[in-house]
Amino acid sequence: MYYPEEVIEEVRMKNDIVDVVSGYVKLQKKGANYFGLCPFHNEKSPSFSVSPGKQMYYCFGCGAGGNVFTFLMEYENYTFQEALQSLADRAGVALPKMEYGKEAREQAEFRARLLEVNKLAANYFYHQLKGPQGRLGYQYLHEKRRLSDQTIVRFGLGYANKTSDDLYRFLKEKGYEDAFLKETGLVTVEERGGRDKFWNRVMFPIMDVNNRVIGFGGRVMGDGEPKYLNSPETKIFDKSRSLYGLNYARTSREKYMLVCEGYLDVISLHQAGFSNAVASLGTAFTTQHAGILKRYVDQVILTYDSDGAGVKAALRAIPILREAGISSRVLNMKPYKDPDEFIGNLGADAFRQRIEEAKNSFLFEIDVLKSGYSMDDPEQKTRFYQETAKKLLQFGEPLERDNYLEAVAKEHMIPAEELRRMVNRMGMQMGLKSGEGWREENRPQRGGEASYSRESGQAVLSHQGEELGAAPERKRRPKAQAREDGIRRSQRLLLTWLIEDESLFDKIEGILTPEDFVEDLYRQVARLVFEEHRAGKINPADILSRYINDEDQYKEVAALFNASLGDGLDGTEQKKAFEETVLKVKKYSLDAASRNAKDIAQLQEIIRQQAALKTLRIS
Question: Can you name the residues that pair with 330 across neighbouring β-strands?
């Protein structure tokens, strides 16, 4: 939903960033700012700064920065809408109500009723578990699965009675009509009456990221079938887009997620301190699941059962994760079947050690591939090498492919050069069949190496891993790159100075304008800073909000306002540093303008200004 800028600004102004962040991070005042340990990366010395003046936070260690909205978005993994609503509720600001058409209003009301009835059902199941009739379910959870009362409460676990219409009668008493109950997935309604979908089962409420119950899973007590039963899909429950435990795992500070197979695996891991565990719900891992995980992490550790079914599930998930841009590893739980069994026998520390030892997913795939061949049979051994070479072709980047080739060769005692030749030969064959070139490396020629570039369609002679024709460019590039980075630092430093001390605008009057900031993003921000200065007050947090929909730009703008000013400098040194920074920014601006001059008159004016810089003094 779109909200007017004035509404967003009202919410931001009524939520002081120091107050909000203090609810998550222990802060200590040092000078004008507050400091604490960064919640977004592990550190021992506080580098996380919160500025009440700017109403911004910034970590000088990892570069995380933003305003009160993005703090909640990053810490709680909220969308902007969720962060805005949370802060509006905190400040007592009533957000404008969305105007619905008739059909949209009916759908919204229907979804709200589904959430309402699921919440009622979850409470009902929980109270059954705590009553005499739930003794069997409680014993299973508490004694057999070793779950504490605290864990049972945290996950809202419950019990569905042996009587097959308990919940139906309960919901009817609450006033829900049969036509609606049919749509909930909780009961079936026939001419003879209603029957519960779940009975004689331990119940697992399934929650969305906002802790709302959207469905249920149930494990039968005894030998009934099916062993596990899930809610059917409804208007609020889509198995392919839901991950059990994500409501808690999304706030974990770990940089990876543990992906399991079942409810009890997740619960056992959370109880053991691994709060970053999730599981798919009675369905294979999907591209939608991978897309959801990508919002939170870039790495996944697959923690599937160690049996054949678990191996197959891992092999299905690995390419899906790879396609989504998520690196994955596979955890070895042998000699135990699942995380619950492993932790019950060896404990959390041993499981943490297995996490550290988890295998690269590609190497895991090769291990599984090898298990299908007899290495004592020359024919099967050759076929294993061929299939391994084919799998290595999936890496389009030569360096990455070569790294994996070396690792596979070392682990499986395959001659690396022979495997490389096989990969190159297959690559060329596949390239010829598809009408494309193949970059074949490491073919000796005149003391160097020849390769075929698919991009240029030409052979390139190289020496010691470098393209000869590109060598002069590569030698020049670091110097030019360093100069550009230095200019960016100068522009960041200058913008930070200007917002921290607006009196400095008087000193650059007639010397610098926003157009002297040659980086496009920096120029955009400089224009806003100069405009707000002319209007009477610079509001960095407000400027930052304008970039909230572009994560990369947002982080860079946050950095623009938090450059290190060199607090150890005395007054004279600071004055000199400021003057040098202004002159450097102006000189680079003029140099860029001279390269783009359209006529002689314009070039002459630029040359005049360049000469004037040599005698310019900033008072």
Answer: 302, 359
Q: What is the reported pLDDT for 619?
A: 60
- What is the spatial distance between Cα 564 and Cα 582, in angstroms, rounded to a whole number? 16
Question: CA dist 126 to 276, 322, 586, 588, Å?
Answer: 24, 39, 69, 68
How far apart are alpha carbons 461 and 469 in whole angstroms?
Answer: 8
Which alpha helices (H) appear in 501-570, and where do they start and end? 504-508, 520-535, 540-545, 551-560
Distance between CA atoms of residues 430 and 386, nearest Å: 14
Q: Is the separation of the CB atoms in 18 and 50 below 8 Å? A: yes
pLDDT of residue 442: 40
Cis ω for the linkage preceding 472 (within 30 of 0): no
* Rg of the chain on CA atoms, in Å: 31
Contact 207, 154 (CB under 8 A): no
Measured distance CA(383)–CA(562) in Å, rounded? 58
pLDDT at position 578 is 84
Q: What is the CATH number of domain 102-237?
A: 3.90.980.10
DSSP state of 262: S
Q: What is the pLDDT of residue 15?
A: 93
Determine phi and psi for 265, rounding to 5 degrees: -60, -50
- Residue pLDDT, tens place only, 277-310: 999 886 789 988 998 898 888 899 999 998 999 9
**Bond from prior residue into 96 cis (ω within 30 degrees of 0):** no
Which of these, 162, 220, 156, lies nearest to 195 by C-alpha position? 162
pLDDT for position 192:
79
CATH no. for 5-91: 3.90.580.10
Q: Tell me how long the chain is.
A: 619
Classify domain 241-366 by CATH number.
3.40.1360.10
What value, to the nearest 5°, has the Cα angle with vertex 544 and ends 579 and 51?
A: 70
φ, ψ at 5 (rounded to 5°): -60, -35
Share of the chain above pLDDT 90, in %: 45
Which CATH superfamily hosts domain 478-613? DNAb Helicase; Chain A (1.10.860.10)
Going by their DSSP bridges, the two strands 277-280 and 327-330 should be labelled as unpaired
Regions of the chain where pLDDT drops below 50? 432, 440-477
pLDDT at 431: 62
**Predicted local confidence at residue 474, as pLDDT:** 36
* pTM for the predicted model, two decimal places: 0.64
Number of Cα atoms under 13 Å in the Cβ half of residue 121: 38
| Residue 150, H or E segment | helix 149-154
DSSP state, 103?
A: H
